[in-house]
Write a structure and sequence with these properties.
This protein is an alpha/beta fold. 56% of the residues lie in helices and 12% in strands. The structure holds adenosine-5'-diphosphate and thymidine-5'-diphosphate (TYD).
């Protein structure tokens, strides 16, 4: 039985997901201890990290769009099997930086493979494993990119260097996902200062996962 919970963090590049995730972990760790698992896509284990290196390498200019989508799904599959499912079986709270919505937005819309096609292909990879809650860090794509260019020059990857029009397509797809999945996906105003973003995200998590986040850790 999967008694744990899966919370995913989504949004355009530079929305502040990783910064918020780190701050949330610092706040929840003292309370949840080993029940808290933090991970990211694409990655989280040796095989998925190796796939991540191939996908994000700026020298891989030859990569076909469908190859890219399949590699993300392959990394996701391995990550689910090695990290996410074992944690959910042990009643842990899994916080994951990006998941299937990233593929629908970036490959489905950004690369124009088709959002439904990418979603369907990912159903094969995930066997339907859907997050209990998704936080959508909402910031204009241009603002996100500007944050990265200002602060993270050394980490700019193959997707960060795409034109602004690509990132606008990604953002539009995220907003469609948000509208279509109001129960699962909750919007966080990521244009605020980090502290306010973290506080809003924590409020949503506590409201959506009340028994999980308000009871003392028993496994
Ligand atoms: N709320 C915020 N306001 C301004 N800058 C931010 C905010 N959150 C994050 N940043 C900065 O923007 C950059 C990208 O943040 P990051 O957390 O790596 O975003 P993401 O993981 O969504 O790509 C970092 O340099 C970070 O310090
Ligand atoms: C998980 C996933 C990520 N991506 C992209 C989004 C990011 O540009 C990149 C991940 O790089 P990363 O450096 O982790 O970016 P971020 O800090 O913004 O999360 O991969 C996809 O295109 N499809 C996917 O399915």
């Amino acid at each position: 039985m999967l008694t744990g919970k899966l919370v995913t963090f989504e949004g355009p590049d530079g929305a502040g997901k990783t910064s918020a995730l780190n701050a949330i972990v610092a706040k929840l760790k003292p309370r949840l201890g080993d029940r808290l698992v933090v991970t990211r896509e694409p990655g989280g284990n040796h095989i998925s990290e190796a796939i991540r290196t191939i996908i994000l390498d700026r020298n891989n200019t030859m990569m076909d769009d469908r190859t890219e989508a399949l590699l993300y799904a392959a990394a996701r599959r391995q990550h689910i099997v090695q990290e996410i499912l074992p944690a959910l079986k042990q009643n842990q709270l899994v916080l994951c930086d990006r998941y299937i919505d990233s593929s629908v937005a970036y490959q489905g819309a950004g690369r124009e493979i088709g959002e439904q096609a990418v979603y369907d292909m990912n159903q094969f990879a995930t066997q339907g494993l859907t997050p209990d809650l998704t936080l959508y860090f909402d910031v204009d794509a241009a603002v996100g990119l500007k944050r990265i260019q200002t602060h993270r020059q050394n980490e700019i990857n193959r997707l960060d260097v795409e034109a602004l029009s690509f990132h606008h397509k990604v953002q539009a797809a995220y907003l469609r996902l948000l509208a279509a999945n109001p129960e699962r996906i909750k919007r966080v105003d990521a244009s605020q200062p980090l502290e306010a973003v973290v506080s809003e995200a924590l409020q949503i998590m506590t409201a959506q996962l009340p028994t999980y986040l308000t009871t003392e850790g028993k496994s």
